[in-house]
Amino acid sequence: MLRIMTTLRLTPIALITAFLAGCPPPSRTSTEPMHAEFVTVVVDGDIGEWPGDSSAYADEHYLYLRFSVQGERDTIQASSRGITLLVDADGSTSTGYVSPFAPMNELGVDLQLEFSPLSPRGGRARGVRLSAVDGAGNTRPLSKEDFDIVFAPTYASSWYEVRINRTPENAGGLPETGLLGPGRITTLATYTDDTGAIVAFSDPMTVTTDIVCPGGRRTAAFAPPEKPANAVRVLSWNVLRSAPMDNPGAFARILTALAPDVILLQEWEKGDAAAVQDWFDRNIPIGHSWSVRKAPGDLTNGGGVAVVSRFPMTAVLGESLFSQYKDDRGADRRSAIRSVAGSIETPHGQMLALSTHLKSGGGKDGIEDRRRIAEARAINTTFAAVATATGAPFRVIGGDMNLVGSRPPIDVLRAGLDTDNSDLTPAPALVHGDHAYYTWRDAGTAFAPGRLDWIVYSDASAKAVNAFVFDESRLTDEVRASMGLQRGDGAASDHMPTVVDLVRIR
């Protein structure tokens, strides 16, 4: 028999009707009062913009849910326990699976989204799993990409936000009202142990929906902003195992379209600095040679990172940094840090720019997470010394931070490095044409898209006038053509470029 040991307490749900500009006025049949507050939910892990105390919200494109597990904070895609979001897509027990146990028996579950789902081999798998559910409780896999599943943050947090696309190409036989059309949606969250037994659950949560705008995923009907004349454009990009060497066309088209001044690269292992410079000179000519700093070695020993600039650049920080941390047995470990930096003479002042690729994998408090924190601390200490010596007004650190465990690596990295001794500020780089923070996506894995790549900068001396992540797949064909891009160019890497335009303010 299913035993419920305690209750998972989530913020109570409010009944919400959502329709936004761009859709025709809804034909309203519900007698429930219309919610007076309409917002734009940004999937970033910050719940401050949510209306009132609601935990579910719907606009014409997505269903949004937020949840928190009291007393627990873990990396939900890599946990020994699982969170499952049960969705009654039409708010009716006449469709979907009805559990014999309260309060799950208030739902006819048509859809479920599992974080750290049970593995057929035992234990828990990593990532997410999306499934349609029939009346007998049988599940059919659905594409997390088709349903445009994005959640935030990727690291362990007290609150999480997730969205589900209301206009998937393959709806998997879901009911036509509620999630896919006007109606009602009821949801419930469960928290399960390593055997799959439910140890906590939320109260059922209901949201009323109106119209759905056709068109599938949210898209960008306009090109990203151009760089202002008085700005320095910085772009950070993990290029997937030296992929530009084998697929130069896609990378060259994107870099040409975005026209960065300073490029922070990760996972470019092949060749030395001269080889990278030759690639840029041949594929993105600017009338003179690009300036390049590249760390020696490969991803295993501190290499694969580079700084490329259209302006003159000199070396700083030396060739290699190392981190000191403890392994799971308490023994001391020492590892090379993937990082490289340069001092750049921009037309608007000196810029100290560093590219880094912190350790990947693991979860909160694991050896990988401890190593990330140690790497961040070593970079911070060395960068601080160079920044003090040079007095550079532009200070930028960017790269693949791999925040899949805890939040501290990014905060340790940026602490006290601004020109006024405050922390460097994360660039607010939403995906262009979307209301979500993510920089990585790989349909070949179980992991949902997430924000792994960050740029932090000195906001005491510079203003970020533009900041965005460039996801080519979200462009309309007209915008793609106007930018000189081809469909699929963005698939050249599993990461997307992160861009910030900095204007000096003092």
Low-confidence stretches: 1-36
Count the E strands: 26
| C-alpha geometry | globular
Share of residues in strands: 25-35%
Percent in helix: 10-25%
In whole angstroms, the N-to-C terminal distance is 67 Å
How would you summarize what this structure contains?
The chain has 506 residues and is of the alpha+beta class.
What does this structure look like?
It is a single chain. The protein has 506 residues and is α+β, with helices and mostly antiparallel strands. The chain contains 6 helices and 26 strands. Helices cover 12% and strands 28% of the residues. The strands form 5 sheets. Strands 3, 4, 5, 6, 9, 10 and 11 form a 7-stranded antiparallel β-sheet that branches. A hairpin with a 3-residue loop joins β1 and β2 (62-67).
Give structural attributes.
single chain, 506 residues, alpha+beta, seven-stranded mixed β-sheet, 6 helices, 12% helix, globular, disordered N terminus
Secondary structure layout plus pairing:
Layout: E1 56-58, E2 62-67, E3 82-88, E4 111-115, E5 128-133, E6 139-141, E7 150-152, E8 160-165, E9 183-192, E10 198-201, E11 205-209, E12 231-238, H1 243-246, H2 248-258, E13 262-266, H3 273-283, E14 291-294, E15 305-309, E16 313-316, E17 321-326, E18 332-337, E19 339-346, E20 349-357, H4 367-390, E21 394-400, H5 408-414, E22 425-426, E23 430-431, E24 453-457, E25 462-469, H6 477-482, E26 498-504
Parallel strand pairs: 12-13, 20-21, 23-25
Antiparallel strand pairs: 1-2, 2-8, 3-4, 3-9, 4-5, 5-6, 7-8, 9-10, 9-11, 12-26, 13-15, 14-15, 16-19, 17-18, 19-20, 21-24, 22-24, 25-26
